[in-house]
Design goal:
single chain, about 300 residues, Rossmann fold, seven-stranded mixed β-sheet, six-stranded mixed β-sheet, 8 helices, 17 strands, about 25% helix
């Protein structure tokens, strides 16, 4: 038996969601952002295969160079790459980073964005390889976890999750971790003898792939999905450290939407345990969606809530 050949690469590819008035995206461009469930993996694109690549460059420097390097690797010899970012979220560095990768850059500025247009570089293959290696998945020894730059808190346990780990009550039955990340909370939950299953719901494909390696328990299930749209139901418990940024932009409504989603997922008398920055406006949303809400910790700038459906 021979392995099936990889699917053909698209003629046009898109990373993220650039403003429509700032960058042209050819019809049918294949989405390759890990934050779009169902999208292709930029690392799986064949070398020199994509004629037009549009990249809404991410704000993190290591992640951004990784994406740019993969886009240039996949760009056809006569192809065109349009990369853009807000000036204060990596845009001011964009031209220099592309030049370091061997590109000749045509740059413009519009609506607080830097927009760079380049072709396939003739040289600097070493720089492209180095950028890809720097942003690739790896095992982080200090965490004893698999991870990748670009994932939230990719090389450390964030303070909110650490506090939630210290205050999680004993839970039982079927549950979910919304915004599961690397699987840190899920691993802790699965130590509970009465826990039957935990579904790790995560928007970032990279985190889902890392969590599959980190959570080696047959009771763990993995769902690459937006927690606000995940079709889970009749759960006994939900835990969450909800995000309040979407691709680098603060959005306080995210946590409120996670609370509403958790309420839909839970059976009557089910439990939500949630950690949040103290300044986040979540208490009203909790009291609207749940019959009983208790603050079980309030320290170091965070609150942990236990809510009953």
């Amino acid at each position: 038996m021979t392995n099936a050949p990889p699917p053909p690469s698209p003629a046009a590819a898109l990373y993220g969601s650039p403003p429509a008035d700032l960058a042209e995206v050819p019809p049918g461009a294949a989405q390759v952002s890990p934050l779009r469930p169902g999208s292709a993996d930029i690392a799986a694109l064949a070398d020199a295969s994509v004629e037009h690549f549009t990249v809404a460059a991410p704000p993190g420097s290591v992640e951004r160079r990784f994406v740019l390097a993969h886009a240039l690797r996949a760009l056809a010899p006569d192809g065109r790459l349009v990369a853009l970012a807000p000036k204060d979220k990596g845009g001011s560095r964009l031209r220099g980073e592309l030049e370091e990768l061997g590109c000749e850059v045509a740059e413009s500025y519009k609506a607080r964005h830097r927009i760079c247009v380049v072709g396939k570089p003739a040289g600097s293959g070493v720089a492209i390889t180095v950028a890809i290696e720097a942003g690739s998945p790896r095992f982080v020894g200090t965490l004893n976890l698999h991870s990748q730059p670009g994932i939230f808190s990719w090389d450390r346990i964030d303070p909110g999750s650490a506090l939630l780990l210290a205050h999680l009550p004993a839970l039982a039955g079927q549950g979910a971790d919304l915004g599961a990340g690397l699987g840190i909370l899920a691993r802790h939950l699965l130590n509970g003898p009465k826990v039957e299953a935990v579904t790790l719901v995560e928007l970032d494909r990279r985190a889902v792939e890392a969590a599959r390696l980190n959570v080696a328990d047959p009771r763990a299930r993995f769902l690459w999905a937006d927690a606000r749209e995940a079709g889970l139901a009749e759960l006994d418990f939900v835990v969450s450290n909800p995000p309040f940024h979407a691709e680098g932009i603060e959005d306080r409504g995210l946590g409120q939407a996670f609370i509403a989603s958790a309420s839909r997922m839970l059976r009557r008398s089910g439990t939500l345990v949630l950690v949040a920055n103290r300044h986040m406006p979540y208490e009203a949303a909790l009291r609207t969606a749940f019959r009983a809400v208790e603050t079980i910790a309030d320290t170091a700038g965070y609150k942990i809530f236990e809510a009953r459906k």
